[in-house]
Amino acid sequence: MSNIKIELKNLTKIFETEDIETHALKGIDLVIEAGDYVSIEGPSGCGKSTLLSILGLLDTASGGDYYLEGVHVSQLSLKEMAKIRNEKIGFIFQSFNLIDELSVYDNVALPFNYGRQDISDEQVAARVKECLQLVGMEHRSNHKPNQLSGGQQQRIAIARALVTNPAILLVDEPTGNLDSKSGDQVLAVLDQLNEVGTTICMVTHDPRYAHKAKKRLKLLDGEIVALDALQEAV
Amino acid sequence: MKRFIARQKQIWQSLAKTPGFVMTVIVTMGLTLGALLCVLTLGYLLLFKPLPYPEQQSLYKVEHVIHGENGERKNAVFTYPTLLHLYKNQEVFNQAAMVNQTDAVLTSHEEQPKVQLSYVSEQWFAITGAKMALGRSFAATEQLGSNNPVAVLSYATWQNTFKGDRDILNKKVTFDGVSFSVVGVTAADFIEPELRAVGLRTGVWLPWDFNPASQFKARWGNIIGGLSFIGKLSNQYSQTQAEQKLTPMINDIWRQNVVGIKFFKGWSIHMELKSFQSVIMGDSAKAVFLLVAAVAGLVLIAAANIANLFMSRTAQQQKSLAIRAVVGANREDLFKGMFAESMQLMVLSMALALIVATVGFEVFHTYLDEVLPRIAELQLHVVTLLCAVGLVLALAFVFSYLGVHMIDYRKLNGSLQSSGKGNSIQVSKSIRQLLIAAQVSVASGLIFINLNLLHEALEKIETPLGFIVEDLVDVRLSYAASQWPEPAKMVPVLNELSQKLTELPQVVQVSRSSSPLGEFGLWALTDVASNTNYTPETRRASAEHFEMINQQVVEGNTFTQTQIRDSSPVMVINDTFARVLAPNGSAIGLKLSPGWGGDFTIIGVVKSIHLPGGQAQPMRVYTPAPLATPDLMVKLKPGQSLEPKQLIRLLKSIDSSYALYLMQSLEDKIHQRLLPQIAIVITSGVLVLLSLFLAAIGLYGILSYSTQMRKFEMGTRMAIGADGQALLRLLLKDNNGAVVSGILVSVLLIAGLFAAYYGELIGYVGAQLIWTGLVTLMTIGAIVFCACYIPLRSYINKPPIYCLRNMQ
User: Fold this and answer.
1) Which of A178, B277, B515, B610 could be joined to A183 by an S-S link, Cβ 3.0–4.6 Å?
2) For residues B426 and B695, what is the distance between their CA atoms, to the nearest angstrom?
3) What span, in angstroms and rounded, lies between the C-alpha atoms of B545 and A57?
4) Which residues of chain B lie closer than 8 angstroms to A56, CB-CB?
5) Helix A78-88 with B711-719: angle, nearest 10 deg
6) Mind telling me how many Å the CA of A234 is from chain B's nearest CA?
7) In the structure, what pLDDT confidence band is assigned to residue B412 with cuts at 50, 70 and 90?
8) Which residue, B134, B298, B287, B117, is CA-closest to B196?
9) DSSP letters of A169-184?
10) Sign of the alpha-carbon torsion through B67, B70, B71, B73
11) Do the Cβ atoms of B808 and A79 come within 8 Å?
């Protein structure tokens, strides 16, 4: 079985308005393998969030091919993409994206509402508990998100991203809304997850956190200008 | 002042950037508030405004209520001698007048129009305070017994029939062969009290001495429909005291005079005083309350919709509000700004509303003049304007209050630095749910009620008549004298007319009987065998009548030409009466006694017919129509017509003493009788559509806003795998509670309405409630589904990033 999780071939993304065509991504080729910890860096507007959105099937590419675990996902319907997002992708947002009305437990369990109907309530509860333990938040399962600090909310978001045991964890500026202490804690959790084999792809501005990645991808004006593999450098 | 004007200008410039919003607010509120002003003015007019007559609180109509043997109320109609006795002997009224309302052909006029007449004693004009445009009203020269042949024209008759002839005074008008000299014309603004029927207005007033009912002056047993008595009650008597004084005075003398009539054994008369206000109002108060409630419901829906728009606008104006806050505006200042904007819109809406109300008054004048009382008085009134000002202020306050209420002032400054998450201005979930519940409850209530009204009216319209009306024309003649000539003189004229009519190329057949759609009379009859009294409806019929209208004969025979010619004492009854008379056998051969003359033998039973708008199949009897009856029914060839001028020419060629009193096709008559039902169908249909439209707009507005507020949440859910169906299910589930609550509130309101008006509404209880209820639920369900799906569609048909982008 192939070790490749994600493979992009000549991927492009063009935003069109009435008068202007903006080439956000220009012919991206990229391979992410199982257990990778990839950071995507670059200045504002270079296309890193767009790339992450396409990787997470939150957006579609204008051209090129995208293979996720060997499946050509570029041409899938919105419904099929939703299924793949649910089963194979965990997304961690800069602004946490927790639902205020739901408790911590319900937020983490939310992905099960949209897939894996064969899982019993007991199995869901066990998995949620396991993920909350992993991020050190099991004692807050009955709280509402607005009762937690930013760092705690991001850890809940990580737990939610992990709960379906996804093939890859996509992380968008996870520390953007956090103070440095909370940011460190969140990054520590990500390190820990990667150490146990979780594939991570993270967009970040912060060079301190980018250094933690094993592969560092640098984007400029929609093109990859550098791809440093830590182990290669070592 | 300059600053104020400048500020108003700024507001208008800001509004001008959103013409869609401005037009929606003005049109929605203008139309619904216009309707509300219209019905509120109507409500004030009918429920609170004093009648336009001097000392109106002392004006009464006296009712001559006849009670049967067991005290049951039979009717409230005078006999001529009791009315005269009351007029001559009463002491409780300072002023009193007798009235006999009827109609007649104005034979002195070239076009021979039919005119509504009121034969009145002279004080009628003083009681009603009638002002005159020309000449005088009745005076001592027209008192009882003076036999002075003068006439007073109504302003409308003067204008319409006599083209406003300034020389009308002293000209002659002829009715029933008597010429009256015109002595006056009532003023244009004089509004006659409509005491007999709504919309029944006198064209010409004639002195009491000439009234045709005087032929019954010695008939104590004959009640006459058009007779009435009005008076100004002396302040020495209360209403009850007056009734107690008048009742024995009339009852005693009536009983003395009917003692020989077996039918009236044990019967009595009670005199009841009814204020002009209560007589004129009748049972219109309920109709007005229902109308106000229905329109207020629409306004509520419209106001809720517009409130949603105002809240959305507040959300859109977040940046502008934040900047104002930064430069020092406090919450009160923000409220003032919103209030000024709402005021501008509400003032414009109200300008449209006043135009709509004025148009509404005209519509009421045209279509409801014969349905609701005092419509002629309906016009823009200071109460209308006060209501308008009150509504403008209240709505402007509510809309701006809701807007300012949704602002989290403390977070407002922060929103300038944020990426536009919009969380400083949001309508709370509870308010959103409340708005949805309110929309659903009002809309479902209005839809359900109007569907039932629609169903009932349609059912009445579609009820089979049991006879045919196509190509049939009803004709009635009048005679130029107060009394018809002897039958021996009439019959040859009518025979010749029938013959000449039959010879016309478009005529198939002529019957000497009245239209099946005319009102039936009532007849007191006693079953000779069982000595049981009945009061069936009665009508005279010719030998051809039943065949001509295709009314089915169930048993026995109808009349022969011989029975008609001899006016034989035979009867045809309907199957309803037959079932009562002989539940287990045949009614043929049974005898019925009218209490005078000989008994009538039943020779036939016909199937009951249904008169549109009438009660379902009452007991009816038919007797042979005398050949001297001035009623004819003409059957035409299909697609042919008969012109009144043709008939008038024929009549003049035979005997110019006869005039055409009425000529109308039965199809027109059906339409006329069904007008109230057609009006209900149109009104309830329009209300159903309006309710649907407003509910759809309103629910879409609030659910669209709700969905927009949850755009980020939707994006998040989609990011973790939710597809379109899952999100639609989520939205529907989230709104279930509000929708169900709204429906429950609606059910409770309808149940409350039912409990309050049990007597009136029990007739609506039936199987149709199930389907109207289901249709209402399905309609509301469909609206909610669409209102959830349509705004969601723009999110679920795109990749999740479109929902998340603004937030990231």
Assistant:
1) A178
2) 22
3) 84
4) 719
5) 70
6) 35
7) low
8) B117
9) EEEESTTTTS-HHHHH
10) negative
11) no
**Residue A99 to residue B716, Cβ atoms within 8 A:** yes
> With an 8 Å Cβ cutoff, are B808 and A93 in contact?
yes
Q: Are the C-beta atoms of B475 and B631 separated by less than 8 Å? A: yes
Contacts with B685 (C-beta within 8 Å, 6 or more apart), sequence order: B450, B454
Alpha carbon separation from B647 to A150, B490, B652, B653, B680 (Å, rounded): 97, 17, 9, 10, 36
- Could you tell me which residues are beta bridge partners of residue B484? none
Token pair of B641, please?
Answer: 């017509």
User: How far apart are the two ends of chain B, measured CA to CA in Å?
Assistant: 46
Residues 6+ apart with CB under 8 A from B137: B125, B126, B130, B152, B183, B184, B186, B205
Chain centre distance of CA B295: 16
* Interatomic CA distance for residues A67 and B476, integer angstroms: 93
A112 contact B CB<8A: no
- Say which of A53, A114, A164 has its CB closest to residue B801: A53
Question: Could you tell me the CA-to-CA distances from B351 to A135, B305, B358, B392, B560 in Å, in that order?
Answer: 64, 20, 11, 10, 69
Which among B712, B717, B799 is the nearest to A60, CB-wise? Answer: B799
Residue A122 reports pLDDT greater than 80 = yes
Task: Map tokens 């007019």 to a residue.
Answer: B45
* Distance, CA of B561 to CA of B539 (rounded, Å): 17
- Please give the helix or strand (H or E) that residue B349 lies within, else none: helix B331-367
- DSSP-derived secondary structure letter, B390: H
- Closest residue, chain A, to B421 (C-alpha): A95
Question: Of the candidates B414, B372, B389, which has an alpha carbon nearest to the alpha carbon of residue B282?
Answer: B372
Tell how strand B537-541 and strand B620-624 pair up.
parallel
Query: ipTM for the complex?
Result: 0.83
Q: Is the pLDDT of residue B724 over 50?
A: yes
Contact B808 A99 (CB under 8 A): no
Say yes or no for a CB contact (<8 Å) between A114 and B801.
Answer: no
Whole-Å CA distances, B101 to B180, B199, B421, B501, B714: 17, 13, 76, 32, 74
Identity at B429, one-letter amino acid code: K
Q: What does the alpha-carbon distance between residue B376 and residue B369 come to, in Å, rounded to a whole number?
A: 7
Other beta carbons within 10 angstroms of residue B531's beta carbon come to 8
Q: How far apart are alpha carbons B381 and B529 in whole angstroms? A: 64
pLDDT band at B410 (very low <50, low <70, confident <90, very high): low
Distance, in angstroms, between B441 CA and closest chain A CA?
26
Q: What are φ and ψ of residue B623, in 5° steps?
A: -120, 160
**Token representation of residue B468:** 């045919």
Average pLDDT (B272-287) is: 87
Q: Does B408 touch chain A (CB under 8 A)?
A: no
Q: Which of B305-319, B460-474, B543-557, B660-674 has the lowest mean pLDDT?
A: B305-319
